[in-house]
Amino acid sequence: MAAGSAPEARGLMDEQTFLDNFNNLIYRHKTYLCYETERMQDDLWIPLDDTRASCRTRSLMDEQTFLDNFNNLIYVHKTYLCYETERMQDDLSIPLDEYKGFLQNEGADKGSKRRHAESIFLGDIPSWNLDTELRYRVTCFISWSPCATCADELTKFLRENRHVNLRIFAARIYERSQGYEAGLRKLKAAGAEVAIMSLQEFEYCWKNFVDHQQDEDKPFPRWDNLDSEYERLTKELEGILQNQED
Ligand SMILES: [Zn+2]
């Protein structure tokens, strides 16, 4: 299952939640997991009821999380990354829904090592076991463009995985990392498409990565100056990518 935000664990599931989510005839965006544990002793299995629960892993983001983090006019400390994968065959692109989801960076506040979203994402890809004989296109929508270190990691990944094409759409340009401009140029040189998220990408993510509960058709609530900021950032990115300094 795709990485998502922290699972909500509780003892028993609603009747309707079970029926809605485990029906083997219905396509659902969510994934539920029930688990139980037994202790083995000689030939006996002893149920450990305190370890029995259900949890929901989410592959869709809350509306507010998306709006707070992808707004191209606001400075946010976190980074969110939505991704999807297609298999490319002749002129067709076949979506692979099992390799679609979102994740966020891990801050030092969790007591664990800081990890950037791109680094976590790259760490997940080997477990997909993509067939090196086939061609894939991975698209990432990231709230911040990659820092110099992540751009280097992504570049290395592309050089070692020629069967994968990468497209990156960033909501904002991350400028607080030394060498980020050269990093973005290296990414482009390695074959990645790097662009700024326009209204079209915001609407696409809203439709494909955000949980609208009951209202599937809820329109994307665009903010003032979205387009002018997109245009400003696109000019800035073009300037970075065209620079011949390195
Ligand atoms: Zn980074």
From TrEMBL:
One of its GO terms (biological process) is cytidine to uridine editing. It is found in: Cytoplasm, P-body; Nucleus. Its cofactor is Zn(2+). Residues 75-187 form the CMP/dCMP-type deaminase domain. Its main location: cytoplasm. One of its GO terms (cellular component) is nucleus. Its EC number is 3.5.4.38. Signal peptide: none annotated. It is an enzyme of class 3 (hydrolase). It comes from the Eukaryota. Belongs to the cytidine and deoxycytidylate deaminase family. PANTHER family: DNA DC-DU-EDITING ENZYME APOBEC-3G, MRNA EDITING ENZYME. This is DNA dC->dU-editing enzyme APOBEC-3G. The gene is LOC105309502.
